[in-house]
Description:
The protein is mostly helical. The chain contains 5 helices and 3 strands, in the order ααβββααα. The protein has a 3-stranded antiparallel beta sheet, with no helix packed on it.
Amino acid sequence: xxxxxxxxxxxxxDHLMPMVLLSINTGMRRGELFDLKWSHVNFDRRxxxxxxxxxxxxxxxxxxLNAEAFETLKAWRSQCDLCQRxxxxxxxxxxxxxxxxxALASAGRA
Length: 110
């Protein structure tokens, strides 16, 4: 059998790390993160749009991306061949909500 490729060269080995980084840097809620699609990310203007259907306030809002959030999204998109082949209307990640909840809950305990 051929050995698996090394993961040392990729920024993310799962969907949790980029989602946690986005949550911390943007203040996005769990439901907003899970419903985020590549079409909601404007890399030129460095803005993420949260749709009214997803937002707690039921109003569309535009969230500016700081340097870390922008670099996280850029790296996540460039490393993921599957994501680049997907439709722009598909979700960004494949993480399960329970995994993200546990990761966000334990993030402050380190």
